[in-house]
Amino acid sequence: MSVDLDRSLAELALERPAAARVLERLGLDYCCGGRRSLREACAERGLDAGTVSVFLEHELDPVGLEGRDWRSAPLADLCVHIVEEHHGRLRWELPRLCELAERAASTHGEAQPQLHELRDELERLRVELEAHIAEEERELFPILAADGVLDPAQLERLLHDHDETGERLRRLRELSGDYATEQALCATHLTLLQGLHGLELDLHQHVHEENNILFPRALAAGA
Hints:
There is one protein chain. By secondary structure, this protein is mainly α. The chain folds into two domains: 9-65, no CATH class; 75-222. 71% of the residues lie in helices and 0% in strands. The protein has eight helices and no strands. It is globular, with a radius of gyration of 18 Å. Residues 60-65 have low confidence and may be disordered.
């Protein structure tokens, strides 16, 4: 079945989670920028929308590997999934990556000054994300798990936080040279680049699950 070029990126990722991997590889933002149509997003990236639609049509990952369909699971289960899978990873990965960034900057910062910028940008991301996930777990998720009403003002703030996270990720990718591991200066730098790329991929999925599944479902439940 051909892909509708006027469908939003978020809709494509929701209908077929395997499509998210294609969008990820092509640099098409389906989480914070998920409201854009495939046609618009391709034009912004200088990609041929028809070619991209062919990639999406032929994504053959078995449905069984795509995991649970969070569009229909209880909201309480989705909240638990986000805390255990995504928040748990952040609490473990962010301190580790910040330590690696500090070591890389200390060793190679004189020759590669952008490593100091990368370290500082990563530390800012860590501070913001730790505060963000703490608020979600303390205030938002208990309400949603109990079928409570999502406060529109709080939602607006959380969406803004997600947009800020997206900007920081784009900056980290730029400072890291698109995570090109062949450009690694040492084993520490290589581990840092690999870890940052993994962090980006997980955060994209994390934000997608909140922006395009959790928040719309919570708003619909309170309508």
